[in-house]
Known about the structure:
Elements: E1 6-11, H1 17-25, E2 32-37, H2 48-53, E3 56-59, H3 62-71, E4 80-82, H4 94-110
Parallel strand pairs: 1-2, 1-3, 3-4
Helix pairs in contact: 1-4
Amino acid sequence: xxxxxxxxxxxxxxxxxxxxxxxxxxxxxxxxxxxxxxxxxxxxxxxxxxxxxxxxxxxxxxxxxxxxxxxxxxxxxxxxxxxxxxxxxxxxxxxxxxxxxxxxxxxxxxxxxxx
Length: 115
């Protein structure tokens, strides 16, 4: 059986960016994907078990990575990658889909060694 790493995608409220990433990659056989938000108002808020589950974490903005690192400093954090995608897109926006697809695929191939 082929190893399928667990990818956690995080944004502010898990409404647009991270949910779009989960949607477009949900049937990708290279990895498992889950999306969460940092805000208490998130549809699915990040928890310790999400961190423990993940092999790689993708955040949309630098500050989200800093917040995760500070909040969960007591845990052994997996590699964290910042995608630099601002919160200006709607759920399933075509430009957002293109950016997420390009950046996540590139990062998985180059930095995570996942083809």
